[in-house]
Amino acid sequence: MELIGIIPAAGRATRLGDIPSSKEILQIKYQGKKCAVSEILINAYKNAGIKKVYFIIREGKWDIIDFYKNGHNVGIHISYLIMQHPHGVPFTLNEASPFVNNSYVALGFPDMLVKPENSFAVLYNEIKKKGSDLMLGVFPIESKSKWDMVELNAENEVTDIVIKKENTKLKYGWSIAIWGPKFTEFLNQRINEIIANDSDGKIKFDDDQYRELYPGDLFKEFIRRGNKVDTVIFEDGECIDLGTKDDLRKFQ
């Protein structure tokens, strides 16, 4: 199966305040060169052999299209999908489902700098070797309240995901992923169920609280349904969130 990259780019970048363009194409300095923030992710996709990428944007972020066009200037084929349901990342990701339902799908975030640079290539090799339904790239995390932390068994299979809680003893959080058609089908089914039940995409969780649905919530449910979810641990890897002012400033 082909490996296709998706890039969720429908957010409003409220953490960055007033910026001159969509955050995905803000110019930064990286490895001695100037590039757009999202070019780091695109290059990581290319390193994994990905030839096609879908940007999922909302109305008004046309400057991303003006910048990348069809992707010729960065050596990859780029197409664009428009977000329909503005309720969070899982709803955005689901826009790609009809276009990737017979493929492996790589998920990275355009404002996240992930090292090592061959991390998607490593994930791709592992998901094919192990026959996993979903493969997560996990990293040692200190700011646990900002991440989805993963609980692992002795075989590094994911047994649970703890969503953004500081008081957990778990060490690793996920930052990138590759999945196969089984998860794409599950994603599409669950999002459609949620929308059919509430057009605003609201969902009540186990603690009887309503909050935004995160990808980790769907990964957790996917695990509970008995699907094979594995990890690659990047013990010496690094994740830097360029969606915050302080971290972005380090690269300008």
Short description:
This protein is an alpha/beta fold and about 250 residues long. It has 8 helices and 13 strands.
What does this structure look like?
The chain has 252 residues and is α/β, with parallel strands linked by helices. The chain has a single domain (3-249), classed as Spore Coat Polysaccharide Biosynthesis Protein SpsA, Chain A. It contains eight helices and 13 strands. It has helices spanning 39-47, 62-68, 89-94, 97-100, 119-130, 181-197, 215-224, 245-249; strands at residues 3-9, 27-30, 33-36, 52-57, 77-82, 104-107, 112-115, 134-140, 148-152, 158-163, 172-179, 229-233, 238-241. The strands form three sheets. Strands 1, 4, 5, 6, 8, 9, 10, 11 and 12 form a nine-stranded mixed beta sheet that branches. It has a two-stranded antiparallel sheet with strand order 2-3. A two-stranded antiparallel ribbon has the order 7-13. The longest helix has 17 residues, at 181-197. The mean pLDDT is 90.
What is the CATH homology-level superfamily? Spore Coat Polysaccharide Biosynthesis Protein SpsA, Chain A
- End-to-end Cα distance, whole Å, is 39 Å
Largest sheet: 9 strands, mixed
Q: What's the rounded overall pLDDT mean?
A: 90
Basic shape? globular
CATH architecture: Alpha-Beta Complex
- In terms of per-residue confidence, which ranges show pLDDT below 50 for 5 or more consecutive residues? none
Relevant terms:
globular; alpha/beta; 28% helix; 252 residues; 8 helices
